[in-house]
Amino acid sequence: MMLRRLLAENADLLREVAELRALRELAYQDGLTGLGNRRYLEARLDEELGRSRRGRLRHGSLLSLDVDRFRDINAGHGRVVGDRALRWLARLLLDTVGERDVSCRTGANEFMVILPDTERAGAQAIAACIDQRLQDATGSRWLPMTVSSGIACWPVDGSRLLDLVDVAARVLAEAKRRRQQPARLHLVR
Q1: Looking at CB atoms within 10 Å, which of 17, 35, 107, 153 has the fewest?
Q2: Which of 28, 26, 33, 24 is nearest to 43 (CA)?
């Protein structure tokens, strides 16, 4: 009798653990794209910066991407098409960045990618690759969609999460300001 009760309690505990894992995943996942969300980005970036402080990781980059004129896509084609465009861009990011890199949707039309062990030149190359793939895919077959980009690198631009997010956001804002026409990828820095 005692064994049966212990087995039942164990089964209940295993179900609860599975439910808690599912809830944790939902707390860190963007519902539309399936990418990590802002909370997940912050947790993972904190981990990478901790690895850097302990000497296990010398440097890394944070790539910030913003879909240009996204309101025009939603206004001209509807939110369903806008959502489809965001899901498509999320897949493009996952297909472009490395396995150790972390792609997240951090705002309505904003994405960030943590690039551990990647210096500025490498981050710029990844941003250019994303731009080229975006241009190739959207130029002839689909919605014209472009992105602007900003990059922050640690330890050069800072070694704290908020500093890096702030630098990447400022660089991205400057890239958007410097844009003279609806153009492709605009990198500053």
Answers
A1: 17
A2: 28
Please give, one letter per residue, the 3-state secondary structure of the chain.
CHHHHHHHHHHHHHHHHHHHHHHHHHHCECCCCCCECHHHHHHHHHHHHHHHHCCCCCCEEEEEEEECCHHHHHHHHCHHHHHHHHHHHHHHHHHHCCCCCEEEEEECCEEEEEEECCCHHHHHHHHHHHHHHHHHHHHHCCCCCCEEEEEEEECCCCCCHHHHHHHHHHHHHHHHHHCCCCCCCCEEC
Q: Does residue 159 contact residue 102 with C-beta atoms inside 8 Å?
A: no
Cβ contact 188:152 at 8 Å? no
Tell me the HSE value of 46 on the side-chain side, using a 13 A CA sphere: 7
> Mind listing the pLDDT tens digit for each residue in 113-164?
999 999 999 999 999 999 899 888 876 556 778 899 999 999 999 999 999 9
Nearest to 60 by CA among 100, 101, 119, 113: 119
Cα–Cα distance for residue pair 143/157, rounded to 1 Å:
35
Nearest to residue 144, comparing CAs of 72, 55, 50, 43?
72
What is the residue whose two structure tokens read 């980009």?
A: 149
| Neighbouring residues of 56: CB distance < 8 A, sequence distance ≥ 6 | none
Task: Please name which of 133, 100, 128, 95 lies closest in space to residue 114, comparing C-alpha atoms.
Answer: 100
Residue 134's DSSP bridge partners are none
